Amino acid sequence: xxxxxxxxxxxxxxxxxxxxxxxxxxxxxxxxxxxxxxxxxxxxxxxxxxxxxxxxxxxxxxxxxxxxxxxxxxxxxxxxxxxxxxxxxxxxxxxxxxxxxxxxxxxxxxxxxxxxxxxxxxxxxxxxx
Length: 129
Prior knowledge:
The chain is mainly alpha-helical. The protein has helices at about 5-30, 35-45, 45-55, 65-75, 80-90, 100-110, 110-115. The protein is built from 7 helices and no strands.
């Protein structure tokens, strides 16, 4: 496996440390996603998609995490894939700048297509950045 830059390592560390608590704090506070999707994502998560997106942001995209991401997306119902990605990315709002969140959502927009799944692209709410 290729060496990761310190930024990518830090990003991955932040994802691991924040992910568990994010479900307890944000998923209950967020009202933007349909309730069944929140419940479905809470039970499964799309954590490997976050890692893949972070790698893409720092130029280290690997098929290893894309494959794992696609597996996780396959376990989520079609109508919950985009809201699930949006939720997972939103969990990082306290850890990343608004510009980084915007960049991650831009990369995530076509993630279902890369996984050969429907919907082919996601439309996320625009950020205030």
